[in-house]
Design brief:
single chain, alpha/beta, Rossmann fold, five-stranded parallel beta sheet, 15 helices, 48% helix
């Protein structure tokens, strides 16, 4: 098979940090070719101890972009797959593949993940954030390694420092870490950075149409939401190829069945979560500084100067 039907860049993490927006932005670059669906999930079975799918299906994801110098996909769940997933990825894609990670302040990410899993009907509509966090905290480590328990991975998913080291050790300067804060405040600056890292013209950043993708929205009627989710899944290749149509349909759907999530975030729970993540943020800041990242977002700049990496 033609090696040019495989990606040379992977957006590998993390969930609810802006990976869908970055995927959409990169796909607008004339020298870039995106996978037919955003999350191919090709290597995800390795995270759960499952067999890998056939490589032919993965090649097919990039069959229409063989002429592009940059070919990429985005499956944010890869980040949590540890060394076994990294080894499978490098065996398949070779030593030159580049990796992009995006980190978001973990409390905000958890709340967004919680709301997202509600919107996909994977969590009960009446579940409170407090009960969700307690359920996540009660999960045993082995249970979190099972695919069916992914909806309860919200608390664990913010412990970035527990998962970063093998990515840094394996990829070195072929790893680019971004922050959701910067993607929001200076998206074109981030894109110039990523385009340069990927080896394509950074000047195209000024021409990218910026839209917010994959926003979690509550629903009025569960049956209508279930139908919409099925249509989105079945028609993803079409929607990815016709973003203007997708945005128009999405606006109409949100007007009919969408609504904002009710403000139910308990301040006491949020403060408890901030304290919970402090040691992980401290370790993450040290890891990133050791890897050469000097400009860190506010939620990391208060990290302690000492301690283990």
């Amino acid at each position: 098979m033609n090696e040019k039907t495989l990606p040379n860049l992977i957006i590998a993490g993390v969930n609810k940090a802006g990976t869908t927006s970055l995927y959409a932005y990169l796909g607008q670059h004339p020298q870039a070719g995106a996978s037919a669906v955003k999350e191919t999930c090709h290597f995800l079975p390795l995270r759960y101890g499952e067999p890998m799918p056939a490589i032919e299906a993965y090649h097919a994801q990039f069959a229409r972009v063989v002429d592009k110098p940059l070919r990429f996909e985005s499956t944010p769940g890869y980040f949590y797959g540890a060394q076994v997933l990294i080894d499978g990825l490098t065996r398949t894609l070779g030593a030159d593949v580049k990796i992009v990670l995006i980190f978001r302040e973990p409390v905000g990410r958890l709340v967004s993940f919680f709301n997202f899993k509600k919107s996909t009907l994977e969590l009960p509509a009446d579940l409170t954030l407090k009960d969700y966090v307690e359920r996540c905290g009660a999960m045993e480590d082995g249970a979190l390694c099972e695919r069916e328990n992914n909806p309860w991975f919200g608390l664990e998913g913010g412990k970035y420092a527990d998962y970063l080291r093998p990515w840094v050790d394996t990829f070195g300067d072929r790893l680019k870490v971004l922050f959701t804060d910067d993607l929001h405040s200076d998206p074109r600056g981030v894109l110039r950075n990523v385009f340069t890292f990927a080896g394509v013209d950074p000047g195209e950043a000024d021409r990218i149409i910026l839209t917010r993708e994959n926003k979690s929205t509550d629903y009025r009627f569960a049956g209508v939401q279930r139908l919409a989710l099925a249509m989105n899944h079945v028609g993803e290749r079409f929607w990815r190829s016709h973003p203007k149509i997708k945005r128009s349909v999405r606006r109409v759907y949100y007007a009919i069945n969408g609504r904002a999530f009710e403000a139910g975030d308990d301040p006491a729970v949020l403060e408890e979560l901030r304290r919970f993540y402090e040691p992980y943020n401290d370790r993450l800041a040290k890891q990133l500084r050791a890897a050469g990242y000097d400009k860190l977002p506010d939620w990391l700049t208060q990290s302690a100067a000492g301690g283990a990496v």
